[in-house]
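Sequence in, structure out. Go.
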Amino acid sequence: MKKKTLKIIISLAMALSLFSFEVIAEDFSDTEYWDNVCADPPKDQRSACLEYTEYKINLIKNDIESAKESLAEAQQLANDYRKKIDTLQIEIDDLTAEIDSLNVKIESLKVNIAENETKVDELNQVVLDRMASKQSIMHFNPFLEFLLGAENFDDMLRRSYGLNAIMGSDEETRDEINAIIDMLNNDKAELETTKSEVDSKLQIQQSKQDEFKVLEEFYNDVAEQSADQIAQLQNEQDTVFNLRDEIWESINSVEDLPSSGGLIPPVSGAWISQGMPYYSSGGYHLGVDYAVSMGTDIVAPANGIIINTANGCSSWGGLGNTCGGQYGGVSGGGNQFTMIMAADGVVYGLTIFHLQLNSLTVAPGDIVMQGQALGKVGSSGSSTGPHAHVELYLLGPGSMSDLDDYLSRGYSLSFNCGWGWAGLERLCADGVGAPCRIDGRVFWS
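Output:
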């Protein structure tokens, strides 16, 4: 049989989303055993080891997803703490500003107190000097003696007025001294209150700074530990991917790959919005439409080979949109891929239309494994909503080792089953032999 060497293209960008097996022939739960076997797999175990690497990648992928969920939760918690930290920092900054303002006030009060104490000393000295200057006439009952010493009544009045003026001046001075002393006492009381307020705010500030430090350390620990966990899992995943690449390279031929045990659904969670071979409203409809939300994974129903792809149409098309043909596919089919595959001793052709723009993860010549994600559901081309239009073809008996022969037969994009009314002539349900179209509902109702 003619052998065809196929280059396996594995992209790290597909690492987290490529594989999701629903059918595994071997029991791979004893990972230690399979790690030892597949470290240098014998030829008769290469296919099993290939499946094992996919199984292990799937396990690691689940661990990564779980770790990412934990990381997301931890980061949310950390972000909450980050917000608290930011709030605390604002409060600390406000307290610092208040403390600085109070310290300025304290310095101003100290200056006022010093100035007023100087004024009190000066005024006291004025009174003392005035009293000293009158001491010579005020030694024994000085006021009376001073008045009685007058030469006449007019002189006594003048002396009386003089005494009153002196006493009045001293009284004003005493009043000024008392006012300044009151200001001094008020300033000193306010100084003590302000100092106490500063001390209280300093304690609050220190408490908040301590809390800030604890929260910041927690935030950093959460981020670092979560990132380390993800990195460790991704490194483990890379190791398994490298092992898988080595096994695929050692196989190096499609005939060494096993056929699938059956066909799995190309999309999960979908409902059939349109059957075949006619639309419910009339007109030809040569496939089955599986309606599901935009972006749902489309997977390989069985092991096989990609033989054609088309990409470049907008993810959202519309009724009558002809996009697809200009990119090498079927006109109106939007973004699409075509493959041949083997399952249960039968070779099938498969085309799926209306994919999301740039969601294809494969190219012509790629070997794909059952359950491998090939693209995502879209509504490109002639489409009125997200769905996968699936056309399935019976090509004849055979296994993976026969696919080269089927590739050499020169099939058209309809696997020589035609379109429109011509397609109605090659329906397997009518007893037509291979190649013919199979109603997908036979397998995926």
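Check: The first strand starts at residue 271 and ends at 274. The beta strands are 271-274, 288-291, 297-299, 304-310, 335-343, 346-355, 367-368, 373-376, 387-397, 436-438.
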